[in-house]
TrEMBL record:
Annotated ranges, domain MacB-like periplasmic core: 25-254
Gene Ontology CC terms, in alphabetical order: plasma membrane protein complex
Official protein name in the record: FtsX-like permease family protein
GO biological process, alphabetically ordered: lipoprotein localization to outer membrane
Keywords: Cell membrane, Membrane, Transmembrane, Transmembrane helix
Broad class of the protein's primary localization: membrane
Regions that span the bilayer: 20-45, 281-307, 335-359, 379-399
Membrane topology annotation: Multi-pass membrane protein
Subcellular location: Cell membrane
Residue ranges of every copy of the ABC3 transporter permease C-terminal domain listed in the record: 285-406
Similarity-based family: Belongs to the ABC-4 integral membrane protein family. LolC/E subfamily.
Taxonomic lineage: Bacteria, Pseudomonadati, Acidobacteriota, Terriglobia, Terriglobales
Statement: the UniProt record of this protein carries the keyword Coiled coil: no
Length: 416
């Protein structure tokens, strides 16, 4: 062991008359450990939120959507879809018809966005129908037969989100009423169109915006309900590289011709991911202040150690130890405190992340959009936090180590 490191390690083991310095040293180690663990946990949570939201968005929505600029629907959608599905990087496509409705059951009601789909095509671009918690989506097939109610009215099938089902107290087999604003003009004014549907499935994606607002029905039933014969709102596409969706969307838009526009999953959720990145930076800065406070404790501990060891420093310098070596002794002492605290902090932080990821602490989906607290610890975050902890701690040792190197042996030993 180098001479400076040997002396620094001996100084960390305070004697009984140096108990105060020892306590402050322990507090410094604990402070560094808490700061490092807090940073690891905070970064793991923000990474987990970003990862889970991105994965759920990508699995629940199409990568690219093509729609009319005037938003008046696509009438020649069959020929257009057949032409665009052969473009490079396009792996799947699906037409869809969106409209908002009021969905009710008895005295309970809730707003919903219904989408008319062709199930076989929709499953290739979106995974919502793969997360059914009850029922089946088989009845949404184009050739499926409607159920005839007691009053003789045909009730087409519908699949709705779990939170929407809870809000209107609907289960598989329940009959719900869809009230569309695309009504019929009468002498008494515009009357909304009513249609009964039979709930054949309930999906749960874990993403609140979809589970509380979305419903699926057959494309032909949506066209009848919304009085839009043989028309779709958009054509959705899945591409081979979701991170190049913006570039591929431009190619699809150009191939579709004038009068069309595209949106992609990154553009639709830009504000969300920008807010998550900003939250991560702010969290890192705020919790990083804990490490700075721990560094102040290291500064105080080393300053008191220099005052306590003035006689020892003078003796060492009298024996020929150079001021640079004295400086390195206290630099290494602060470095040891930082290393010990950082190691304990990393162990504690990653352990808590593992526990959180294993047991899944619940969250309010209405507030956070997902129903559990995600943890996604990364090795790169550990390297970044370690560098921050050691760097700030070393900065805190500069003043006391420089003070120790400026001790004059004759002055320090004059009254001994």
């Amino acid at each position: 062991m180098r001479f400076e490191l040997f002396i620094a390690a001996r100084y960390l083991r305070a004697k009984r008359r140096q108990a105060v310095v020892g306590v402050i040293t322990v507090i410094s180690i604990v402070g560094v450990a808490v700061g490092v663990a807090s940073l690891i946990i905070a970064l793991a949570i923000t990474n987990g939120m970003t990862r889970d939201l991105r994965d759920r968005l990508v699995s629940s929505t199409a990568h690219v959507d093509l729609l009319r600029v005037q938003n008046d629907g696509i009438r020649d959608w069959r020929a257009l879809t057949e032409r665009l599905r052969h473009l490079p990087h396009v792996t799947a496509d699906a037409p869809g018809l969106y409209e908002p409705v009021l969905l009710s059951r008895g005295s309970l009601s809730g707003g919903a966005m219904l989408k008319g789909i062709i199930p076989g095509d929709e499953k290739t671009v979106s995974g919502l129908l793969d997360h059914l918690k009850a029922g089946s989506a088989a009845d949404l097939a184009p050739d499926a037969q409607d159920t005839i109610s007691v009053a003789g009215e045909a009730t087409p099938p519908i699949v709705i989100g779990s939170d929407l089902a809870d809000s209107i107290d609907a289960t598989v087999g329940s009959t719900v009423m869809a009230i569309s604003p695309q009504g019929t003009l009468t002498p008494y004014g515009l009357l909304p169109k009513l249609q009964r549907f039979r709930v054949v499935g309930i999906f749960h994606s874990g993403f609140y915006q979809y589970d509380s607002n979305f419903g699926f029905l057959r494309l032909k039933d949506a066209q009848t309900l919304f009085s839009e014969p043989d028309l779709v709102s958009l054509i959705s596409f899945k591409v081979d590289n979701l991170y190049h969706a913006d570039r591929i969307a431009k190619e699809i838009e150009q191939a579709a011709g004038p009068g069309f526009m595209t949106t992609n999953w990154m553009e639709q959720n830009r504000e969300l991911f920008h807010a998550l990145r900003l939250e991560q930076v702010v969290t890192f800065i705020v919790i990083g202040l804990i490490v700075c406070v721990a560094a102040l404790n290291i500064l105080i501990a080393l300053t008191m150690m220099v005052m306590e060891k003035t006689k020892d420093i003078a003796v060492l310098m009298s024996l020929g130890v150079q001021p640079a070596q004295i400086r390195r002794i206290f630099l290494m002492q602060g470095f040891l405190i930082s290393v010990i605290g950082t190691i304990f902090g990393l162990i504690l932080g990653y352990l808590i992340c593992w526990i959180g990821g294993h047991y899944r602490f619940p969250l309010s989906a209405e507030v956070y959009s997902i129903d559990y607290l995600p943890f996604a610890p990364r090795l790169s975050d550990g390297v970044l936090v370690t560098a921050l902890s050691l760097g700030v701690s070393l900065l805190a040792t500069l003043y006391p180590s420089s003070s120790a190197a400026r001790v004059l042996p004759a002055e320090a030993l004059r009254y001994e």
